Amino acid sequence: MDQGLKMHRNISFLIHILAWILIGAVLFLLGPLSWNTTLPMEFWYRQLTLMVILVAFFYTNKDIFVPLLLFKGKTWFFLLLIFGLCFALMYAMEYFENLIHLPELMHKAFHPDDNKPFKPKRDYIDIFMLLVLLLAAGISTSVAAVQKWQADEALRRQLDQQRISSELSYLKAQINPHFFFNTLNNIYSLTSIDVESARIALHKLSRMMRYVLYETEKDQTLLSKEIGFIKDFIELMKLRISEKVKIQLDIAENFEDRVVAPMLLLPFVENCFKHGVSSRQPSIISIKIHAQENVLTLETSNKIVPKNPGSPESGQQGIGLANTKRRLSLLYHHKHELTIDDQNPENEYHVTLKINLA
């Protein structure tokens, strides 16, 4: 990483050098060299001095004035300082030109046959010089603003990535330990009734744990693995619920292997079982998952069943449901649509999630 950063800085430095060479050639060399006359050496001293002043003014403004004044909200002080410096540098260059007698030498170079005594102009403002200085100030301010925007954007992306990683870790930690504990108990009970079913359930549980341990370490996983994880979860949940709970599943058997962020669907599915299962009354859970072209769609619905106050799961909102909403907004900001309806006469909880995986 350090080597890459060093290379980036070297390339940036080289770009700056080449840019100044190009600017210097266009502003201070091409024009004078096209003049059909022999220019005095003092003229080139003046050009070199102006180039040095522009470079110094450019980086002083970009690295000092803009960060310390403009970015701190001192806009008027910044503007007054820049305009004041532009006029000061303009007059300083005029003084330097008069000091080396450049106006008189240039007059002789362009009018060698003019024997009249040289009369210097009494212009108080050199428009060209002032425009060049203001141009340097404007470009350096723009460069500083763009660099700040890029740095802020890079920092925002880094913070978002850290936030996504931390939230995924939190999500994994939130996978209900009661689910694993009760599932193991159910599997243990099955061993004395149906060994083959217990073996299959244990295999599904191990696949789920492997997915949580390894697939979630990546930023993305295959959609088929994510759906397989959901299916294993539903099958294991069936071991815990009574015959009063009717599960309606509509999950496509084959999914085109696109990539998706891991564990985005599980919180909504888990929420159905956590809040839609009643031990006294019949209840229905409906889960539909399908993909059409690039759009993955999840639809769930369940009765809203109040939890007992003493239940270990009462007061929880499912496996990171709010957390998952944040992950969706970060990972698929303009590419997902989430609709939750929990205010209806049927007292049902409906979720529709659409994600564009293109």
Automatic annotation (TrEMBL):
Gene Ontology cellular-component annotations: membrane
Residue spans crossing the bilayer: 12-31, 43-61, 73-93, 127-146
Residue ranges of every copy of the Signal transduction histidine kinase internal region domain listed in the record: 167-244
Record SUPFAM superfamilies: ATPase domain of HSP90 chaperone/DNA topoisomerase II/histidine kinase (SSF55874)
Keywords: Kinase, Membrane, Transferase, Transmembrane, Transmembrane helix
Gene Ontology molecular function: phosphorelay sensor kinase activity
Name this polypeptide is given: Histidine kinase
